[in-house]
Amino acid sequence: MAGTTEKGKNIILIGFMGTGKTSLGKAAAGKLKIPFLDTDDLIVSREGMSINEIFATKGEAYFRSLETQIIRELQDLEGGHVIAVGGGLPLREENRPLLRKLGRVVYLRTSPPVLARRLEADTTRPILRQGEGSTLEKVERILKEREPKYLDAADIVLENDGSSFYKTAGKLTNIYKKGGEFNDQS
User: Structure pTM?
Assistant: First the structure.
């Protein structure tokens, strides 16, 4: 039946902005020869404006409702995919079970200092432009709130701090090939 996917048919990448969901997701999908989807790209395409423009003109609540709508629609996917979701998508309680139903949820966890270094010059992230403090302070503050929700949504936590890009992408392909089983030695 369309709309039902077996656990492990899709790999869902969650985590904070800058963890490598998109770049690692594309690399893993390429190695596996399966499609890659990014929920942020799907929203931008549907709305015809950037995420910054959506936040500025329609607000964060509108954007978050679009994320939920996209995840609901992705339940109808057939075949295997690697899907990267926006960093805030797992925050909504209703989204976490939808993610788990869609496939094997992998939380790409990266330490705040590494994230701050990666995001320091990035001006495209609306959440990082709000509030006081350095990039590191903002990352630590936001991650402290988000991490319990990422952990609640995740089937697997994959550390992405110091490993090589290709080694981490290889771990993702192994997770897919093994139907979601994970061994950190993969």
Answer: 0.86
